[in-house]
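Quarterly update from the structural biology core.
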Amino acid sequence: MKISILAAAACAAAAFPLSAEVTFSKDVAPIVFNRCTGCHRPGEAAPFSLMNYEDVAKHGKLIAAVTASRIMPPWQAEPASYAYKDSRRLTDDELKTIQAWVKGGMAKGDLSKVPALPKFPEGWQLGPPDLVVKMEEVFKVPAEGADLYRYLRIPLNLPEDKWVRAIELRPSSRKVVHHVLYYSEPVEDAKKLEAEMRAATSPTAGMKFSRGMVPLGGVAVGAQPHLLPGGLGLKLPKGNDLVFQYHFHPIGKEETEQSTVGLYFAKKEPEHTLTGVQLPVAFGLFSGLNIAPGQKDFRAADSFVLPVDVQAVSVGAHAHYIGKTMKMTATLPDGTVKTLLDIKAWDFAWQDRYFFEALVFLPKGTKLESEVSWDNSEENAKNPSRPPIKVTWGEQTKDEMGSVTLQVYPAVESDLRTLNQTYRKHLTDVARDRIMKDPSLLMKVREFGGGPPGLGGN
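Predicted structure, tokenized:
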């Protein structure tokens, strides 16, 4: 690791012109405070603080290396055709400034002129939630073994329907929680599922899909919580409980998890209904993932033509360790091609959903195309297998998945059924064609309660 950091710093020094006039107070502090300190401060997930000159200078060479390689700040998406909200991606000028400052000896400048730290939210990042709930019981994550998938229930007892604009999860043990998917489910079904989870011994017991679950989004390592824009919300029916699907990653010592959850509600029932278009469908389950050891550029692609006008709200991607690139484009009816998401260096450790700065109108007839690639070579430093092994589709992190999901709503609400039915037909057609070639996939479909993961674009 030390060698790679030094190499990155050397490459950065060659790539960026250097200036001895760069100082912390004038040039570097504004960058660090606005791009880094939000996570690098007490009580947040980052391992050290970056709140003053001493903090930043102590880690200066490391900062120069990880920013030049774009490992930090954690923002994987390249600039696309439409701007994203809350981008943490450093500009080329900001990168040059950091390199010049470190190369020039990390000059202080006039510390009396260092800008004030931004006003960071204390506690909840989105402000006080409308409802705060907590897991009733502690879940023990063993020190060793395979990754665990478990559904955990939190009772709500809501007297009326609510529409969720955001859910902010505060794990008690961040290190073992890789990602969490949020659902609501009728109480009796949720209690039954909870009993099954208590009796479960399989590490993937919590991967089963239940038809009664209503998707409410999710969070992965590195993601920022966002409020859905424009009064949008996901329905949380009265009398339903929260059911969270946790992906736990053992870290070598036993941990206990008892999350606290903040829910943010829309003030009234939304006028539009969110749905998703995921390509390849079902996280790539039907994409023929069979990645040979040493294969550097295995690819899977899928496309879908929008049957109605839609407004796109956000886009996100998912794969495991050897995921390499993720891309989704939209070819408009007039032939214009727009990039919705472009990730050139996927990192399993940092997964986010990218909200567009403004809603993106995509007219009927727009062709969405998505392509995912994987690198199963030994040269891939993120490959968990040494030497590489054959990799196929599966739930464990040494298996693989891959897809890009566009979150949309129909411009005309009455078109929702057409959109969902057309997408479901596409999913079914893709699944049927692949199952005819590989009947063993039927077993994987049945493992998810008759519905493949990603059904409906979640």
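The chain is about 20% helix and 30% strand.
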